[in-house]
Amino acid sequence: MTINTVTRHIREGGKSIFRNGWMSIASISSIVISLFILGVFILLSFNLNTLTKQIDSQVQIRVFLQLNTTKEQMELLQTDIGNMAEVSKVTPISKAEGMKLLQQSLGEDGKELLKGYTEKTNPLPDSMTVDVYNPDTVPMVAKKIQALNDTNSEKPIWQVKYGKGTVEKLFKITEAIRNGGLILVAGLAVTAMFLIANTIKVTIMARQREIGIMKLVGATNSFIRWPFFIEGMLIGLLGSVITLGILFVGYHQLILVSQNGMQFIQLIPLQELWLLLTGLLVVLGVLIGVWGSTLSIRKFLKV
Amino acid sequence: MIEMQDVWKTYTDGSHALRGVSVRIEKDEFVYLVGPSGAGKSTFMKLIYREEVPTKGQISVNGFNIGKLKHRKIPFVRRNIGVIFQDFRLLPKMTVYENVAFAMEVIEAPKKVIKRRVPEVLELVGLKHKVNSLPAQLSGGEQQRIAIARAIVNNPSVIVADEPTGNLDPETSWGIMKLLEEINYRGTTIVMATHNKDIVNTIRRRVIAIEHGHIVRDVVRGDYGYDN
């Protein structure tokens, strides 16, 4: 194929997108919708993954002691737990410190709420937070700590708590979103493909005469096919570029909002995601476009 | 050179368009195809440019066995055959120049060659001054000249013309015939189906008459032979 031919095919393919007007808009929109939803799901699952990992690494064990536990008992427990191979750090939190932390986490309202409690009436137990090296060992270490009660007649441990199930739940949610998203996106992609096939069909019908003359004067089949192929590709490409624009602007806004209001959620910065997202959506958009045009060419062009 | 040997064409509805046609048309010949409507003239021509394939028998055009041609080879055989229709079949949105250039573009001729060749054929058909007109701005005769220019622009060795004067008034028809004669004189085989008695009887050439799918007459300098 000569350069002239290539530019001719691209020009012809581009022209018919404009000529088909509303049909092209419908096809592009359907691609935008399916790719947009795919993009949202991708961003969501990436962020959920990171969030899960963050939470995973923050999983601590909290050990609450009986109210009547003595200081010696507490120190003993602290050494016992600290000696476990899996444990990286043990931090004792006295009831007074516990009250302070509670007040902090409740903010301004908390001051009012907790005003009545003095040092004497503080209802909180002494506690400890235990960090482990590997988050997987959390349930096992929690059991081991609970078991310390068995060898101690005082039974100083009231409760051992950890984020049981939170991590697992998050993983499950991520997976469900991913699967549901994939099915939805696949369905939408097929719809988009059929709309494109229809648009190309309209082009082919509108060009029956032209195609007839092309055949008559000896144009090769591939020469006749190319412009329709390119039309499908361009529709896919346009659709994916529009989608990327929407996604990037929207995600950027979301990052701005989250920085102002919801500091507890850290969104992955766009710089780390845009390349992957662009590659994926452009390839998918073009594939859907080509798929749709191939379908039409085979059925209606009979070259 | 076109050669048919016992060619049959039966359409899917069971109608026999051609029944055992054998004929040989030499290079440089000018052949009129006459006969009543529906006798098989159009099928005869469609077989030449491989719009249809014979049900039985063999056709060769320029040495290619048309019936057995592989699909991807068809375009290359067609480049050697120019086709002209009664209804011109020009592209309405393209200018005269573009209509003719189109036939060269689609066979991927170099731009330089197109730029040189298109004015050349437009000059031959006498419409060089109308390069930028649209077909709708031209008379029927002028449109047919453009169609002829498009048919010959790639230098085919055979021209197949299906009633090229069918839509034109007598005076214009003579102009088109003069042009076809000129093209024939330059060495292109012409096969022309026609119902125009005056033309056949005045410009005397080989006449092949087809009736009910048979060749009933084949005369070197024949006459039209029907009264209509």
Characterise the protein shown here.
The complex is a heterodimer of chains A (303) and B (228). Chain A has 303 residues and is an alpha+beta fold. Chain A has two domains: 3-55 and 168-301, no CATH class; 60-162, Alpha-Beta Plaits (2-Layer Sandwich), CATH 3.30.70.3040. Chain A has ten helices and four strands. Chain A has helices at 3-19, 22-58, 71-82, 95-106, 108-113, 138-147, 166-206, 208-216, 221-260, 274-301; strands spanning 61-65, 87-93, 127-132, 157-162. Chain A has a four-stranded antiparallel sheet with strand order 2-3-1-4. In chain A, α1 (3-19) packs across α9, α2 packs across α9 and α9 runs antiparallel to α10 (274-301). The mean pLDDT of chain A is 83. By secondary structure, chain B is of the alpha/beta class. Chain B has one domain: P-loop containing nucleotide triphosphate hydrolases (Rossmann fold), CATH 3.40.50. Helices cover 32% and strands 26% of the residues of chain B. Chain B has seven helices and ten strands. In chain B, α5 (140-152) packs parallel to α6. Chain B is globular, with a radius of gyration of 17 Å. Chain A binds chain B through residues 1-2, 4-5, 8, 209-210, 212-221, 223-224, and chain B through 49, 71-72, 75-80, 82-83, 89, 91, 102-103, 105-108, 110-111, 150, 154.
